[in-house]
Amino acid sequence: MSAKIISGTETAKAIREELKIEVAELTEKHGVVPGLVTILVGEYPASQSYVTAKNKTAHALGIHSEQVTLDADTPEEELLALVDKYNKDDKINGILVQLPLPKHIDEAKVLYAIDPKKDVDGFHPVNIGKMVLGEECFLPCTPHGILELLMRSGVETSGAEVVIVGRSNIVGKPMANLMLQKRDAGNATITLCHTRTKDIDFHLKRADIIIAAVGVANMISADQVKEGVVVIDVGVNRVGKAANGKAILAGDVDFDSVKEKAAAITPVPGGVGPMTITMLMKNTVQAARQANGL
Ligand code: NAP
Fold this sequence. Notes:
With 294 residues, the chain is of the alpha/beta class. It has two domains: 30-116, Leucine Dehydrogenase, chain A, domain 1 (Rossmann fold, 3-Layer(aba) Sandwich), CATH 3.40.50; 141-273, Rossmann fold (3-Layer(aba) Sandwich). It has helices spanning 8-30, 45-61, 76-87, 107-113, 125-133, 141-152, 172-179, 200-205, 255-258, 272-291, and strands at 4-5, 35-41, 64-70, 94-97, 161-165, 189-193, 209-212, 230-233, 237-241, 247-250, 264-265. The strands form three sheets. It has a six-stranded parallel β-sheet. A three-stranded parallel β-sheet has the order 3-2-4, with helices on both faces. The chain is globular, with a radius of gyration of 19 Å. It binds NADP nicotinamide-adenine-dinucleotide phosphate (NAP). Residues 142, 165-168, 170-172, 193-196, 200, 213-216, 234-237, 272-273, 276 line the site of NADP nicotinamide-adenine-dinucleotide phosphate (NAP).
């Protein structure tokens, strides 16, 4: 058996088409142009390409987007003042501060300074708290994208044994929370694994759905999973450089072997990645609606 490939590229494209129509309608009927600002501090290469991709996507959807790049040695107060400026700017509905920040800046302090109504990354404690309570809020983009992928691929999560590997604040923990909510793509039984988990193989082997967010290339192989499992691979690992200078990427799951055993699997690249940016756009449009009482 060879797995169904869950294409994030295709799903993201479909959602972006929906968003494009929604943005056009907001603009034409209500005079509302959703606005997003991305703030980058320093020159971390991966961050630069993420921010560029986010702005490009926003632009393609008709979202007003601004990009601010600050020097790596920008003082924390200056960044906080900039966040405050955008908190008060009516043209801007979403503020994204690209992580990681340079070491001299307190990341939490900056994220907490963003108005929760403009926190389109879903990292503010107000939004995280609401998410845990199952209230409406901005969901963190990567787990949100995974929920959409599962729903749109028709994966049954209700009652499923879901094993998530990785407990970061941006992927593993919110993912676990969302999938145990009484909601679409939820109602699952969750096991959350990490470096202190005693026997990861035991958990992986009985999983109906595996979500890998570890950051270790090809860590999960076919002999660790059961026949018919659904695999969502969040990992993005640079494993080499192609002749054209582009990075060669691998997921946390050994795609070639696992796809022969799984019922469905996301590729890397072209899986979760495109969904993350798309959910940022979805959150920005939601923020614009809310700011205008629509
Ligand atoms: P992170 O903050 O580094 O967390 C990694 C998690 O994996 C930690 O909880 C760690 O456990 C666990 N872990 C590491 N090695 C392990 C092992 N050998 N066995 C079991 N658990 C292990 O990573 P992250 O930010 O969540 O990102 C994870 C991966 O997803 C990275 O490759 C990242 O690039 C990718 N990512 C992709 C997207 C996307 O849009 N496609 C978005 C975000 C992240 P401890 O907590 O015990 O240390």
